[in-house]
Amino acid sequence: MGNIIDYAEKEMARMWLKSFNAVDSLVLSQFSYIHFDHLVPSLLEEAAPVRIGDVLKAEFFEQMFRDVRDADSNRKLLFALAASPRFRDIQLSYYVDKVEPVLEKQFSALTFLLEDQTAYIAYRGTDANLIGWKEDFNMAFTSPVPSQEEGVGYLQTIAGWVPGLLRIGGHSKGGNIAVYSAMKCDAGVQDRIIGIYNHDGPGFVDSVFETQEYNKIKDRVHKTLPQSSLVGMLMQHLENYQVVESKRFGILQHDPFSWFVENDDFRYAEKVSLAAMHRHKTIDQWLSALSKEQRELFIDTLYQVIEATDSDTIYEFSEDWLKKALAMLNALKNIDSETMKFMGETINDLVKLSIKNLRMPGK
Questions:
Q1: N or C: which end of the chain has fewer CB within 10 A?
Q2: Which residues, listed in sequence order, are joined to residue 121 by a DSSP beta bridge?
Q3: Largest pairwise CA distance in the chain
Q4: pTM assigned to the model
Q5: β-strands 242-244, 261-262: how paired?
Q6: Which domains does the chain have, with CATH numbers?
Q7: What is the DSSP code string of 32-62?
Q8: pLDDT in tens, 214-228
Q9: 17: closest CA among 268, 264, 266?
Q10: Are 230 and 279 in contact (CB under 8 A)?
Q11: Residue 328 in 3-state DSSP?
Q12: CB atoms within 10 A of CB 190
């Protein structure tokens, strides 16, 4: 059974011969994790778009795959796309990549100009920057977060520059931004969107799904998630989704390279795993028991401890672990006793809920 790399290597049909599909969306969403600085025109540059085939020829590999998770697989994906008749002539433009710690924002997007005369906007999910992870956690108590707002602005801008029909999507947080942007963009732009792809991205609070904004786009949303999904099941109550089989286990299934592809579609499962449902139920009950202010305090305190390690990326955070652990212990000493008590009780409640739900799997 293959994955998106195998699909890119074997699928020969041009976009105008075989219609765009959900696997194509995941391919382009994963491709957007690569760094394209000085390779693809930015949103502020008046320069011609660049073919995927020509991106490979530039051979800026060290820069392109710097701090990219699973650089080897991403490199293989680049080579496969650059050789593929289906992908090599797709043009790339309007690249944006921002990390703004003060705003707690990590945002990146890229526009693909397809041969079927449509455009696909890919929003990057959370990358190696820790500030991006903090922004993800902020979704538990605030909406919108800065990257969601920037996603709307990016879509509006691209729609003003690129004619024709639009598709938008992303993996992880990128999928959430795609859905949010489609909900919040102008009606004229919304009418041009023919597909919205959310690949294992988190959902929204229930009230969002009850709005007219969501109802207008819900039939165009294609959500896919793996059997043991964690991220895609967060705030997942009222969205329809399809479950994809994966070669990995547990939360490692969040990796798009692990998803099974069969011919020109995913290999689907009937439902998510019992473990995924257990995590979903536990986290949902835990968050529901906390007020917005309590969620914010818990997340800010947790990040304050992590921030004490002076790490900017998850890779830096995982290095010299003894030194990082000592820094976090020192940070804990500076937290007031009332907050420490709250943190301990909150974590304890999460553990208790997890055990309780394990004992009552059918309820």
A1: C
A2: 111, 168
A3: 65
A4: 0.93
A5: unpaired
A6: 4-275 (3.40.50), 289-359 (no CATH)
A7: TTS--TTTS-BTT-----EEHHHHHHH--HH
A8: 999 999 999 999 999
A9: 264
A10: yes
A11: helix
A12: 19
